[in-house]
Design a protein that fits this description.
Elements: H1 11-33, H2 36-41, H3 45-67, H4 72-78, H5 80-113, H6 117-127, H7 131-148, H8 150-153, H9 158-165, H10 167-182, H11 184-187, H12 190-222, E1 225-233, E2 236-242, E3 256-261, E4 271-274, E5 283-288, E6 306-312, E7 325-330, H13 334-343, E8 351-357, H14 366-376, E9 379-384, H15 400-403, E10 411-416, H16 418-430, E11 438-442
Parallel strand pairs: 7-8, 7-10, 8-9, 10-11
Antiparallel strand pairs: 1-2, 2-5, 3-4, 3-6
Helix pairs in contact: 1-3, 1-4, 3-5, 3-10, 3-12, 4-5, 5-6, 5-7, 6-7, 7-10
Cofactor: FAD
Main location: membrane
Transmembrane segments: 12-33, 53-73, 94-111, 131-152, 164-182, 194-214
């Protein structure tokens, strides 16, 4: 049973973007109303600039929290891939603005008091209201930023990185008392204080609603359990899941959930896995053993309870109404694209799958792909071989037009590791496919 979902209204993205821009405009207006421009031309230029950067940093920190709050309107408008990229850029921008704010405010106060800047910083931390909490929050944010640098992130398991990343919430909330108790832009303005409390209240409510309450209600309703575990290829395992009222689960082919399997220690840590079949009265995910929590999937027992958070992702067919479709998969990236092949309303001969794999042992779902080729006319091209300098295997010299002749007129879906997906997207765009018809999902974090 395939389930049809309503299309995401086009204005959702514009509304969310406008709201984010408006929040930065409002905090800048608060700084202007509190004499910021006048202070720039007087003797308090350092402190005035520091105040403005602090307001921007705090506002961006709240936007960063909202980007990952799992708000359905935002998730469906942009997709989690794009939100994760914005979250990263916003986070680093906020962090550097915060550090510059600290430096400028310290130098400004030290200049006025004619004291050593380090002594002034120490005095501010111990004597200003809320500053000790703010300093603790800053240290938490430093830890999050350091572990988010790509070189450091590659050395961490996904579960460890995710756990450390949660300290960003602690850092954000520890900064609030300092802003309201000693921030000159809020202390003297009840309206500004009310606005700031309201903004924080929205952020807290969004996190609690969509990251705690909604998943609890959804899991209570659907009560997912493992039905069976099936090996698909070397190190690749599918899990079939049963539950209640799954036809009411708002999921589409191509989306993913965060999964927790209640089979013993470690169940509190979630992992993101895509649906590998179109959602119906049963769900299926397919997992590659990557050496972290994914390895335990192959040992799951029938009846194991499962908790989920989601669905997430915008690699869906909601904007596809028929015509040529080309899907480019690499490795375990086949999973959401296989689900799409089962759901999209293409005619026989309109769908082409280019499936990049290392060797035959790593090829999953061959019988299922053969069935789709026989029953729905899907053209499946296996790109097998060692990794080359492009999205193709090292020993292939084909171009995209020879592999998918109708790609220029097609809707294109790409899923795989980040570097490979970027190369594949470049090839697709170079073939003349408009950006609006290219949909990607990266298997990275």
């Amino acid at each position: 049973m395939t389930i049809n979902r309503a299309r995401t209204p086009g204005w959702w993205g514009a509304a969310a973007t406008t709201a984010a821009g408006a929040s930065l405009t409002v905090v800048t207006s608060i700084w202007v109303a509190n004499g910021g421009p006048q202070d720039l031309t007087g003797g308090g230029a350092l402190s005035a600039t520091g105040r403005l950067l602090g307001l921007w940093a705090s506002d961006l920190l709240l936007i960063q929290v909202l980007l990952m709050a799992r708000i359905p309107l935002v998730e469906r408008a942009f997709g989690q891939d794009r939100l994760a990229r914005w979250h990263r850029v916003t986070g680093f921008t906020s962090f550097w603005l915060l550090l510059t704010h600290i430096v400028l405010i310290t130098l400004g106060y030290a200049s006025t008091a004619r004291t050593n800047p380090l002594a002034q910083l120490w005095s501010m931390i111990w004597n200003f209201p809320g500053m000790l909490l703010a300093a603790s929050g800053t240290l938490a944010l430093v830890m999050v930023v350091v572990t988010s640098i790509r070189a450091a992130r590659r050395r961490l398991r996904y579960e460890s990185w995710h756990l450390l990343h949660l300290y960003a919430y602690l850092g954000a909330f520890l900064a609030l008392p300092h802003q309201l108790w000693s921030g000159s832009d809020f202390v003297g303005s009840p309206l500004a204080t009310a606005y700031w409390w309201g903004l924080w209240g929205i952020a807290v409510a969004a996190v609690l609603t969509y990251r705690v309450v909604l998943p609890l209600l959804r899991n209570r309703r659907h009560r997912l359990v493992v039905d069976r575990v099936v090996p698909e290829a070397h190190g690749i395992t599918s899990v079939y899941l049963d539950g209640h009222d799954l036809h009411r689960l708002p999921a589409r082919a191509g989306q993913f959930f965060h999964w927790r399997f209640l089979d013993g220690p470690g169940w509190t840590r979630s992992n993101p896995f895509s649906l590998s079949a179109a959602p119906s009265d049963q769900l299926r995910i397919t997992v590659k053993d990557s050496g972290d929590g994914s390895g335990r999937v192959a040992t799951l027992k029938r009846g194991t309870r499962v908790l989920v958070e989601g669905p997430f992702g915008k690699l869906t067919g909601e904007s596809y109404a028929g015509g040529p479709v080309v899907l480019l998969a690499c490795g375990i990236g086949i999973t959401p694209l296989l689900a799409l092949l089962g759901e999209l309303p293409y005619a026989p001969g309109e769908a082409t799958l280019l499936y990049r794999v290392r060797d035959d042992a790593a090829t999953a779902f061959r019988p299922e792909l053969d069935r789709l080729a026989a029953e729905r006319g899907v053209r499946v091209v296996y790109l097998t071989g060692s990794r080359g300098s492009s999205w193709l295997p090292a020993d292939r010299s084909d171009d995209l037009f020879s592999l998918a002749p109708d790609v220029r007129a097609a809707r294109v879906f790409i899923c795989g590791p980040e570097e490979w997906a970027a190369q594949a997207r470049t090839a697709v765009r170079a073939a003349g496919v408009p950006a609006a018809r290219v949909h990607t999902e990266l298997f990275s974090w």
